[in-house]
Design brief:
heterodimer; A: about 270 residues; mainly alpha; ABC transporter involved in vitamin B12 uptake, BtuC; about 0% strand; B: about 250 residues; alpha/beta; Rossmann fold; 2 domains; six-stranded mixed sheet; three-stranded antiparallel sheet; 7 helices
């Protein structure tokens, strides 16, 4: 099994799993605490539009996905904030429109059609150096942001209106975290694919939530569970030669069931 | 007002509302040191809108708000109870510490002595045993005590309370109002009351808000005036229920 580590592609996959694991663990804790899981699903699917468009125009897919993810995240944030449009309707619109745009452009692209399955379910074993560098940058950005702005972030998430009465830059923090969520989702796409990204942002956090009721503990536990679960999944999938993204999700699920059972027994 | 002292905060001729619909019209209000203003009025009359304007959460259509030179730690705010996510993973100590946000801004860190201060307040208001408890696990009355600690940890000049005793058992009012009386010695209080019929007896003056604002200073009513008082609404009370009767509004009816 350790022979795998000699291969470049597997080293890349492992590094990127560790980086994305921690990033998603932290960002996901915020998403779950703020009940933004559905928003994250919307952003993820909207980014597919960017993938399709950049494929059609011959740009880097990650660039297109980033632009679409950021625009949809900010779109949902600003359009629902002034209460004129319902947030859940907006999410539905971005979600389905992104998918539709993506599918049409991939269909229109002449020549060899890219493998849809790898966008939908991810393929960590084809991760590039460029993506690892981007993941590392995001990883550092997220750590710095969470450590430096932990309390304002946490307090604003808990009670936004109250924070506004304190002259804190609520919008700046909110917009920054929204951008971080969008970037995190894009970089997670290669690992888990559009359909499975949401599992990275919710299942480790749900497991942490079984045992910890404190935000800081949940952050650390989620990052640990997310990294270890995805590393285990990566090895198992490479060993058995089965799809990585799906194996990782099943690993998360098994840890969740185990944790849930342990908690029941402990009672 | 005795020798007209300078108010802490003054609203002058404020029009405010949402989406071009005016909720408050021509409102004037001054808040002085040691004031205890009770705000009453029908639902939809603009009580909460008034609080939002005072707190700076809502920009008025027109009129002027005169703030003191230093706005830091001006307000302590206790919002309506039902409004937050009860399952948010935050414990009692962190809730109280979040009251220091305006002092700390984005960059200053929270120290051990900040935490000590939060714990002292929690002890003082009978919540010492719940420092590490998730906020959602508390009863309504306990939550309000914690939110009161959050509102006063920064030693604000004005404490603003939005229906603090709604959704809380009636025993809580009896314990809560003496706390406010004590706090009133060092800060001004503005409190929205949830119904017209009852208001805490420590309130020194009353503002009736129904689109317009009518201000009643507490010592306006004398027994002689009561004799000839023409009351548009009759209230039935039993025996020794404490009560106060307000003067008619000059321009309109509440």
């Amino acid at each position: 099994m350790l022979d795998l580590l000699r291969y470049d592609f597997f080293q890349n996959a492992l590094i990127s799993t560790l980086l994305i694991g921690v990033s998603c663990g932290l960002v996901g804790t915020y998403i779950v605490a703020k009940r933004m899981v559905f928003i994250s699903g919307g952003i993820t699917h909207a980014s597919f539009g960017g993938l399709g468009l950049s494929y059609f125009l011959g740009f880097s897919p990650i660039l297109g996905a980033t632009v679409f993810a950021v625009l949809s995240a900010l779109g949902i944030f600003f359009l629902s904030d002034n209460k004129k449009l319902r947030e859940d309707s907006l999410i539905g619109i971005f979600w389905s429109a992104g998918m539709a745009i993506g599918i049409l452009f991939i269909y229109l692209t002449p020549g060899y059609a890219p493998n849809l399955m790898s966008y939908l379910f991810g393929n960590i074993l084809t991760v590039t150096r460029e993506q690892i560098v981007l993941s590392a940058i995001l990883f550092v950005l997220i750590i710095v942001f969470f450590v430096r702005f932990y309390r304002p972030l946490f307090y604003i998430a808990f009670d936004k209106e109250y924070s506004r009465t304190h002259n804190v830059h609520v919008n700046m923090i909110d917009i920054t975290i929204t951008l971080i969520i969008a970037l995190c989702i894009v970089l997670c796409l290669k690992l888990a694919g559009i359909i499975l990204v949401i599992s990275y942002l919710t299942i480790p956090q749900a497991i942490a939530g079984l045992f910890y009721k404190n935000f800081k503990q949940q952050l650390i536990a989620s990052a640990l569970i997310s990294t270890s679960g995805s590393t285990i999944g990566l090895f198992i999938s490479a060993f058995l030669n089965i799809p990585t993204g799906a194996t990782i999700v099943i690993c998360f699920l098994l840890i969740f069931i185990l944790g849930w059972g342990l908690k029941k027994v402990a009672r | 007002m005795n020798n007209s002292p300078k108010p802490i905060l003054e609203l002058k001729n404020i029009d405010a509302g949402y989406d071009r619909q005016t909720v408050l019209h021509g409102v004037n209000l001054a808040i002085y040191d040691h004031d205890f203003i009770g705000i009453i009025g029908p639902n939809g009359g603009g009580k909460t809108t008034l609080l939002k304007v005072i707190l700076g959460l809502l920009k008025p259509f027109s009129g002027e708000i005169i703030y003191p030179a230093c706005r830091q730690n001006l307000f302590g705010y206790l919002p309506q109870n039902s409004r937050f996510d009860q399952r948010f993973p935050i414990d009692v100590t962190e809730v109280v510490l979040s009251g220091l946000m305006s002092e700390k801004g984005l960059y200053r860190s929270y120290t051990r002595s900040d935490k000590q201060k939060a714990w002292e307040l929690l002890e003082k208001y009978g919540m010492g045993a719940y420092k590490k408890t998730p906020i959602g696990d508390l009863s309504g009355g306990q939550m309000q005590r914690v939110f009161l600690c959050r509102a006063i940890i920064s030693s604000p000049r004005i404490l603003i309370l939005d229906e603090p005793t709604t959704y809380v058992d009636s025993n809580f009012e009896k314990e809560f109002y003496p706390i406010l009386e004590e706090l009133n010695k060092t800060l001004s209080i503005v409190m929205v009351s949830h119904d017209l019929g009852t208001i805490c007896s420590y309130v020194k003056s009353i503002a009736c808000v129904n689109r317009e604002l009518h201000y009643h200073h507490s010592n306006l009513i004398t027994p002689e005036q009561l004799q000839s008082y023409h009351c548009p609404i009759e209230l039935i009370t039993h025996g020794r229920v404490p009560h106060r009767v307000l003067k008619d509004h000059e321009s309109s009816h509440l």
